[in-house]
Structure prediction request, 191 residues.
Amino acid sequence: MKYPIVCAAALSLSLIGCDRAPRDPDPEPIETGNEGPEAEPTASIFSPEAELPAAVELEDLTQTISFPEGGSDFDSEALVAIETILDSPQIGHGQAIILRGHSDADGTDAANLRASQRRAEAVRDMLVSKGVAEGRIRLIAFGEQNPIAPNALPDGSPNAEGRAQNRRVDVTVQVKASTQSSQPAPDVSAD
Prediction:
């Protein structure tokens, strides 16, 4: 019966000795050949200091093109806004471009609807002339129904600044395919 006690004692001592075994030293860095002062830093998923680039998910681009003087001619600010659209990363995704034309409240409903349609068509034509596929573009004419500023002052007189802001085309360049129907807007030019 001495053997089980002796074996148990020997096993206990050997396990205690395992806990005190020397540990391996930290590994030496591996030279890659670009360690000089002009070496470019490299990112590693193992290095907590390294910042890896995050995946960038683009959102739809929205841009307003104003027509403060009325009509459908572009001023310099409108041309800059169109260039911003053309230079955006969103334009290269090939999804729908929605042009929502608006007018002020000066005139009849039918005239305002036609004016908003002409503004949206002018933006479409400019985008197409710059290489955007016409099939991507959808026009919606709202006329005066969605103002962003009051068309009249509290005393009922015309609000020139508000009306200028309302004469616009709101552009949306979609990045992801829309689940909405892409039916073309009704043609309002037959009045």
Remarks:
- The first helix runs from residue 2 to 19.
- The first strand starts at residue 61 and ends at 66.
